[in-house]
Protein 1
Amino acid sequence: TTLLYTIKFEQCEIVCVTCAMASSTGLLYLSENPIKFPPVTRTTPVFYDETNQEIFALDGDVVTVYSAKDGSEHSLTIDNAVNIISIKYSVDHSLLAVQRSNQSVDFLNLQEQTEFSQNSRKGSGNIIGFNWTCQNQIVFINHNGIEFYQVNGKQGKVRSIKAYSINVNWFVYSPQFCVLVVSSTLSGNVLHPFYFKTPQQGSTNINRLPKFQVELPPSTPTQRSQLHERQVSLLTLHGKLFLAVTKSPQHGQESYKTTEIGLYVLTTESNVNKVATLQLGITGRFAVNCVDNMIVVHHQNSKTSMLFDICWSSPAESNSVLNLTTTRTPAFKIPNFNLKQDGSITTFRPIMQPMAITQFLHDGAPCELYSSSWVVFQPGIIIDAKIGLLWELKMSVGKLSQHMVCSKPALIRLLLHRRSYKNTIFCTLRSLVMTQSSKLSVLGDIFDILNSVIDDVLVTQDEMLEEVFNPLLCRDEVDPNYKISLITEYIRSLRLHKLRISYFFYEIIVGLLVRCNQLFRLHQLVQFQVLGDSAPLACLLLSLEKSYQPAFLLGIDMLKRLKDTAGITDALLKKHDVTSALQYACSLNQEDSMESAKFLQSAVDSGDNVLFYTTYQFFVARNERLRKSPEFLPDEGVGEFVTLYKALFSEL
Amino acid sequence: MEKSSDPLLHNLILFNPTLCTKEGQEQEKILFYFARDETSEDAMVRQVGLCEGMINFTQRFSNNTCEALETKNTRQVYYGPEPDFWMVLTVRLPEKGCKFVSNLTLRATLITSYNLFKLFYGPFSVLMSKVEDIATFRSKLKKFFGPYRTTLKIGENGILDHVCGVQYLPIDPNTYLCCQRFLNSLRDQFSPVLYTVLLFKEKLIYSGLNKHDTQVLYYYLINILFPAHLETSGMEVISKSLQTLGRYLNGPDNFDDNIKASRLHLTTDSKDNQLTQVFLLVYNNQDTTICLMIDATKSCTKTFYKTLNSCLTANIPTLDHIVSKQVAPKASSSSVAQYTPVNDNIRYLLYNYDNLAYISTLHCQPSVSATFTRIMCDIAADIRDKRDADIVVKTGSDIWISARKSKSRVLFAVVLQKSIHYISVVEDIRKLSLHLFNKAYFSEC
């Protein structure tokens, strides 16, 4: 896959693009600033290196390198550039590997202007290609074997680490995983994976993994089934490596009407297994990309792309049956692969109708999309060699909600698996609650999904308040009952998933119920202990006494459950209910340690002289019991009450 | 069955003095008059005049009107629910046997009957102004109070009657919120549904109404609708029980017919003294009963009722299952712990004026005899207006009765054990209240 052009490109007719130009970007679009490089001709070949994501454009002996990573470019002159078959920088860019013949690879030490080379082993056949793995290690893939070398640029030496003898038709390589998969046998469907680990002292860092076989359509008398390189790609989805194999029907085969893509999961721990089938439903020429952990299958004939997500499914949801449960929905981690563990294969269909990539304007004119001169690389590289552009395929996550025809909870599950899901989820939720376009139960289902994800920082309660609830709450025209129901649903979901509920949700719901005078409902919420006990909530309830008298007792009850005895005494004294406060303190055997001044002050403030008299007498009795004298101690600070008592009741 | 030894309803009168404009036409005042014995119109007029005189006379001494009149053989209670409208109920005491009727509970009966009338017909004054003539008004009153007075159980007026309380189902917050999810979704999906009330095994789980409406509706369901349904369709229910199909106790029997639903007049969300008018649907499936109150100002189509019905049939069985699973003996989420026999010799009644909740073990065998219930009624009348109270009484038969009021909560306890000392009675009751109020405030001894 290194050499970009074939002679075919030049024979292609230029298709006149007459499509109406899209005014805005759609779901799939090409990066706005593509890498520009000289278009491919017979005399100016272009190479692409997936590992470093670099374009090498040759013009005579001058090689210009364009980096798709940072957009930089630089040129250098190489002898005998005309014969170049493949060209790649080492990972640290200290060495440039150039293949000019079928038998050897030359290494150019650019800093020291030295050059040395390495031949493939005798009998191992022609070099099909090579890949830098890591730390100046390189693997040669030959027709009859794999060779793994350590290249020392300073000394100009190449040391063989390991070699395998194997017949190779072609190979694919994943730079992210340093995994090489080579095809062998006549049919090409026996695949051998090799895994290159980061080197550790004293151990060989190449791992040969068990070979596996890819199923092929049955051969016909005229045509032998074969697995070709163009049918295979290595995809990375949520940090897992998959091998995608496009299986097209052969001519005259009725049983295979349409094309499907088989997905094989590659791990270093276990055998390779086919885990999924992507059903394309059509035939033709396909190319596969990955964007934001979704598989994008481009169909050249219809000039559209299909999207697949192996973490997603859209279960049939009933309209009238609510999901009523008091047991939490199963917790899940992201990614939550919708794959079976028992070795059976899951079938996936496109998550939405096929769609075209958004039109791209190049020098003011629309580019031909899905052109036959397109070459795609992982994860999302699209190169049009004929016009000399390298794009990155992108997806506008925000547009997913417009294109998806599915339930809102299913949409949320899809969004959760996108890289920048947060804003889109908030946007979606905000629009759902503001327009009240979704049923309340659907919003509840969404809350349940968000709350069952095992990830502390996924969506916090503060964020939900800020991004979703506050915009609704501050709109006065919205029915307060809707607000109450919505917050109740959120509290239900949090409770169900055993999450600690932030006090402000209680405050909101209490405030709403008081404002629309639904005090009996408020009473029930506290009575059934839906609102978790906390000191601030108890204080809030106590303070509601003016608008709802029973709230005071609810607050006191809560303080009792919180074992806040001082709080209860203070609340009673604030109401000048001194008798109850005294009784309460006595019941806790705190009689001897009570602060007399506090109680006497409350009694005085009540304006009830009898209450003051009773309270005073209570403490006099205590004084006598404790000290055998009715007098108060000087440090009790009750001097003014003694004076008042004498003034009021001296004649008694 | 009425026994000769029970107090009997002597008369039930409703009158409005302003309806009589000319002397000699005093019978015009009378709006409804039920008398056990045959009574001439003259006698009725005299009786009403007597009541009116009694009310006017006592008003000279107090801002509060007269509530009850006791004579040797009768008890008469008065209630003026609206300006110029008076209701009077008289009970005749039997010559032998039960000589006791509590004025407090008797008057509570009268108030409840008014509240029920108002729930179904609206206030007297509003109804009177709406009908074409007084005769129509009188016939409406007769239509309601005629049958209703037969449901009055004068002899059985117990301590519970004056509370007119509500029994709540003790369920955990998650189950409660699950019910809320269903009810809120229902309201969200069917906007004409203004309020919902949910019950399980005749115990309240949720009410979207205010306290007053909840109290009256609950009374209606428990004392009138449910028993009536058991009587009329008892056999049918048993034969159908295998199907456990949902059914309407009140509402559409058949969607082809006109929807037959009672119109209710609610004080919930009433504006400018205009009561909120709704249609009441009561739907029952297994142990779950849901009341739906549908906006009477909106006309709902048959399709609406059909969709609503399919939503109920689709979800109520699940809800019923979830709640029944949760109602386990040990479940206790209400602020008051459930009864566990701390002491076999104690029967108690606990109620809370704030949420109308009550728990009672008075009926547990051996139950508390009527004599003690009467004493409790007397105490209840005494402490009704007190913020806090603590009373311990030793009865003639050597049994202790304790009543304690702390803020809105009242706890009655009867210690059935004979010949025990006051100290141990107090200790027993202290233990009981510690047990009952481990999660709620109650002033201690």
Note: The CA atoms of residues 22 and 443 of chain B lie 58 Å apart.
Protein 2
Amino acid sequence: MAVLRLKFTKNERDKLAQVLWILNWISVLTGILLFSLGLFLKVEINKRGELMAERDIQYVPNMLIAVGLIACAINFLGGKICYDCVDTNKFLRWKLIMLPYIICTFFFTFCVLVGALMCYSMRGELEESLNLGLTEAIRFYKDTDTPGRCFLKRTVDMLQMEFHCCGNNGYKDWFQIQWISNRYLDMSQKEVVDRLRSNVEGKYLMSGVPFSCCNLNSPRPCIQQHVTNNSAHFNYEHQTEALNLWMRGCREALLEYYTHIMQSIGLTVLLTWLFEVMDACLSVLTGVRYLQTSLENVLRQGDLNSESDGWLLENSFMETARTNLNIIKCLGKGNQIDTANNGDPNINVPSTSKAHYGPDNVPLKEIPEAS
Amino acid sequence: MVVMKMKFPFEKRVKLAQGLWLLSWCATVAGAFTFSLGCILKTELRRRAEVMDNSDVHVVPNTLMIVGLASLGINYFASKVCQDALDAGRFPRWKKMLKPYFAVSCFFTVLMLLAVIMSYAMKGSLESSLKVGLRNGIRFYKDTDTPGRCFQKQNIDRLQMEFQCCGNTDFKDWFEFQWISNRYLDFSSKEVKDRIKSNVDGRYLVDGVPFSCCNPSSPRPCIQSQLTNDSAHYNYEYQTEELNIYLRGCREALVNYYMGLMNTIGAGVLSVFLLQASVLVSLRFLQTAMEAVEGNENTEIETEGYLLEKSVKETVMEYINPVMKFLMLKNQVEEGTPGNPEIPTDVNVKPGLF
């Protein structure tokens, strides 16, 4: 008793093959979309690579790129199969890999879902990476003469100007590190020497920030030096002054930026996944399965232009499941064929080895195995 | 004397009509492209409208937009004409419209060429407009409390950071204007009072620049104040220091940017002009070739096509004469009247009056 048996004329078979071919090509396009989204995310992360500490965040864009490429490959192959299905001669070539192909598509659809979910899970790792990376960057801001770090000053300045942020958590981060190199400090001046001596580690700390922290929207010229000293500037109260410098920390700004990108990408990938599910499971699996079974039946009947039956499963669900389980069990037992426990009453498995019927040579009664 | 006579056998006519149809659709797309180029240029000019004194340079994008729209119509009409051209029954209905059509389309094609020339010629006007606009921008930088000028500071800061420039001609322009508002000056301080007294107009001038002039590529933290005073900063010589602040003036930066944009657009529009001109020339040949076919039983005869029936000068006069007559700039002298053309032959003079 087959599951969902349908009759297929030759025209209907051809039309089914064509529809599946078109669906597969649309899936190839979505595969390209996934690939490009992964590439975009990788480029964005590498752009600010200097500000991120070593953390395992590259796995998300790499996964998306891999999934996108596999999607293209699988769906291209599927398109080729469906194209060839119209011609029964070519169909014979693909007969054997059709079932594995269906299983691969199923598995791959699951990978797309995993990729979408990973986009949302990346946030914690990213925050940690940015925190460490920005702290390091601010610390090495002054080292413009050290090879490997000479462009860090420019990177941090451009970051603060572009993202409208200052420091790691806020502008006070700049008070805790020396961001003016000793090359530009006049060691003969008393003020400089006093400041250096008053610090435990001999660092020149000041309550000042670089120019890139200055807020464009401020009505007054930027106050960078003695930021916390109200008496140093006329008509100035640093507690209430909100427009002088950027108040937001760069970690928060970058995190928001990347979260926004990843949420958009995650949403797109989820939508792609939904489309793939509808496309792969309902259409391709069903359609390809029908195509496969109807073409097999055509070949069995011998007449290429006749009607044939197509079905999802040859026998009912339970029977098919039992058969497959037995096949797996047989594989596990190796070459031994247990004729005494020939459990399945439906499949006629002829025993090829010598039957051990006992001294009377009378075949034993079949005992249905409790599985 | 016919200009550019060419023989057209039937196959050649057919090929001409087909090629013209394709060409006119390409030219329609090119017309839309010209319109969009005009829109882009106008948007870019309007973005920096606060630092431009006058909008004379806007004539270039305006012309491009008008020409783009006109060429859409012209080329659509051309495609319709050449579709009917090979059908001797349907072609005559276009005959009456073709003469004014050619006049109008030649006008717009010439206008397109003019737009290209103007885009190169407008440099001087743009530069003087920017000079005045930037000067005002710097002058009103401090007036963040005056309505109508409160965003001047923001605009100038953004401009300097985006175009990596400082001041009008260079950074020294900031030394000539008071860019720190009196609201933030402590008038009880001796230093401030001295500085204001030393200036003729009572302005607080400093040899310093705003933070937006700072160059992020500099290896040392930005030096904004006391720029010309070498002793105020350790290990600093302002004559040789190139990386501290942007040395380029904003006028030069903006002119370069806009001229680059207009040159690119000019090159594009020039190719559109060539396409358009070829459409018109082909249509003219098709029209004249088809006119000879008209009236003949056999539509597959070989005909001659030409560009202009008379010489260039005569054709131009033919078109301009009606315009001149309309404006009454010419004496109404009929051709072929004997005698002195200066004495008007007035047939309405009643005999017997004199």
Note: Residues 334-350 of chain B have pLDDT under 50 and may be disordered.
